[in-house]
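Dear colleagues,

For the upcoming journal club I promised to circulate an example of a predicted protein-ligand complex. I picked one with zinc ion because it came up in last month's discussion. The inputs are reproduced below in full, followed by the predicted structure.
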Amino acid sequence: MKTKNINDLKDFSGTVLVPVFETSAKNLIPIQFGTVSISSKVFYGKKDSYYLAEDNDNIYLFIGLGKKDIDYKSLKTIFRRVAANQKEAFTKCVGVSFPTEFKEQEVEAAISGLLLGTYSLGHYKKEVDHPFLDPEFELKILATVDFSITINKAIKIARAQLETLSLVDLPPNKVTPGYLAKWAKDRGNRYGFKVNVLDREACEVEQLGAFLAVGKGSNNEPQFIIMNYEPNKPTENLKHIGLVGKGITFDTGGINIKTAGMLDMKSDMAGGAAVFGAMQLIADLQLPVKVTAIVPCAENSVSSKSFLPSDVIKSYSGNSIEIIDTDAEGRLILADGLSYLIKNFDPEYIVDIATLTGSSIGTFGHECGALFTDNEIIADALRKTGDSIGERLWPLPLWEAYTEDIESAIADVKNYSGKPVAGAISAAKFLQFFTNKHTAWAHLDIAGVAYGNDEFSKSKHASGYGVHLLTKFIENL
Ligand code: BES
Ligand code: ZN
Ligand code: ZN
């Protein structure tokens, strides 16, 4: 989407979006925009109400925003809804007039919401594209303040989120580890970050044993994707952040095959997809930071080559792992991802993000991700960032008492407690074991928020959770 600032509607002909904050229904002062006047009995800006008017060949779509204290996510959703559902009202030319109350955050939410509204799950349908995606399309911005910096940023945020939505929603016979490696190399070239991919052979040389064990059962070769970003004009003392994302392109459960919920498991690379989207966005925004991101990508499949329950494997860190359950595969690939990141790149801060456990859904439902860290500064920063954009997190403990859940009789550690309790916590304790006591590590379990139902499609689909959260967290560090 391109945008253009205009001062007035003199030479404008098309559809004008007019978002309006709520006035009192009893307030008899009409809503006024240019030559159009609406009685407040008919429309007074109530949240999610619309009013269509026509004047001088222009169409005016009034959009109710509700109260002025509306949060970022709700505002973004209102605009996403307009773009997704009001297509018929869009003529060739579309303009938007921001209320005077709109500051940068509101403009960012509105523009990124409009662009997200172009997303359709129908990747394999012969549908006409959304008018906003026409290369010639220009959204005309009617504002007295110049918001162009914010608008450009909003477009970049939405573009990165759209990428992540597609990566998660496309089927696992398309989005294989190889597809993700190609995607990363392509975006690295386009946006300016370095990408190094270790294939199976290279992973064997590096002895990424836990990662390789998970990928063994599949004909789709596992790919260990390493990305490095530095700004084009690096300054001194750049902060260095490490990211690790779970990239399981499909999780059958392996030999401990899933008996429930397998259909959703193309989304088991949503943590990795959030890292991919964040890398695109960080490079697109040229943030003044150094970021090293690792997404171990593999398919957890069933075959005679699959790893087995009771196998003992050797991880990259040198620690042995007893496999209690092959469905607890995410923590295995993340263990090697974290160890590899720390040993070879030693970042100052580390965040991993993964659709790791059903247990985190049992705890929080679909309202927030589970946050694990012993670092209060990072905990606060992540939570504040999440709250500000509606990608919420809530903490769970990493108490020493849970360590016994991962103690094995035969190996250094086991991948599952075997108990039906505290699953998200023992998974986090397992990851912590591989962080070499790093003091600025956080783990985000996003199983409940990465993929699900909402108003934008009939079937479950990706939310894009994490792209903006990780980027904004890094931006504000
Ligand atoms: N990918 C799943 C977790 C998951 C479940 C993500 C539902 C999204 C929605 C993970 O690999 C898994 O299977 N976890 C098991 C672990 C158990 C076998 C120790 C779980 O949480 O049940
Ligand atoms: Zn699993
Ligand atoms: Zn999984």
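Two points we might discuss: The mean pLDDT is 96. The first strand starts at residue 2 and ends at 6.

See you all on Thursday,
B. R.
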